[in-house]
Every structure is written in C-alpha cells, then in structure tokens.
Amino acid sequence: MERTASAVWHGNLKEGKGRISTQSGVLKDSQYSFSTRFESGAGTNPEELIAAAHAGCFTMALSNQLTIAGFPPESLETTAAVTLDRTDEGLKITKIHLKTVAKVPKADHAAFAKAAQDAKDGCPISLLFKNNTAITLDAKLA
C-alpha cells in the first residue's frame, strides 16, 4: 500500500506560502506557511498533520487491540499533542502525548491499559518515531 501527498512552496521561508494536498483529496491546496507553523496564522503545518496521523493511527490500533481482547469499543476519542523544540541538532519533534478516552462496555481497567499500551507501542506512526521521540499516553475508560 502506498499513499501520497504533495507540497508546493513559493518564496522565502518567512514570507513565502505553500499548499499541501493529499491523494484522497481530503486536503486540497490547504495553506501552510511560516506563520501557521511558528505563530498563529490560518492554515495547517507539518506537526499538526503528524498529530492528526498519530491520533488516527493509535485510535484504530486501540480499537483492534480491544476487539482482539474481547472488548469491542463503543467509542474512542484521542488527541495527540506534538511538541517541536529547538535542539542542538536543530528543530526536532521531541515528544508526542496521546490522550484517549474510551467507552468500552465490560472492559476492566487492566485489559484496557494493556490494549492501550500495545496500541501505542505498535501503531505504525508510533513505530516511525520510536527511537527518537518520547511518546507518552494518558488512557482512561469513560
């Protein structure tokens, strides 16, 4: 399976502007710029897109882990906070914090905690960052 996205940029870093599009068309010529990344401009930025990808990936993995454990979820709500810091190596994503609230009938806390940890450790986006970014998790049953 292969998925694609594209980016176009015009101008220098601080005053330039770009557009991001995805193969599916969910993002089509979505604006991004220096101000959307480092200030509070309108549009998206790479870290926000990574946060969305990680929240989605983890939530699907958690649904799968819970179903395998015999506790199919009723609902899962996850946010991912991606932190971009300046380091000696330059700008780097230094941490990602996942926070999820789950409505899972009949699940006990131990089974839920194991499923959440397994999902965090095993989803493809987590694996992408595994060796160079701290990934933390706050998982609660509703």
How does this model look, in words?
By secondary structure, the protein is of the alpha+beta class. The protein has two domains: 5-38, no CATH class; 46-141, K homology (KH) domain (GMP Synthetase, Chain A, domain 3, 2-Layer Sandwich), CATH 3.30.300. The protein has helices at 34-38, 46-68, 109-122, 124-129, and strands at 5-10, 17-22, 30-33, 75-87, 90-103, 134-141. The longest helix is centred in the middle third of the chain and has 23 residues, at 46-68. The mean pLDDT is 96.
Summarize this, please?
With 142 residues, the protein is an alpha+beta fold.
What does the radius of gyration come to?
17 Å
Structural class: alpha+beta
Assign an overall shape: elongated
Tell me, what is the CATH class of the largest domain? Alpha Beta
CATH third-level topology of the largest domain? GMP Synthetase, Chain A, domain 3
Number of helices: 4
Main sheet attributes: strand count, strand direction, barrel closure: 3 strands, antiparallel
- Strand residues, percent: 35-45%
Mean of pLDDT: 96
Distance N to C terminus: 35 Å
| CATH homologous superfamily assignment of the largest domain | K homology (KH) domain
Number of domains: 2
CATH architecture term of the largest domain: 2-Layer Sandwich
Strand order of the largest sheet: 1-2-3
SSE pattern, N- to C-terminal: EEEHHEEHHE
Spans of at least 5 consecutive residues with low confidence:
none
Report the count of strand segments.
6
Secondary structure: helix percent: 25-40%
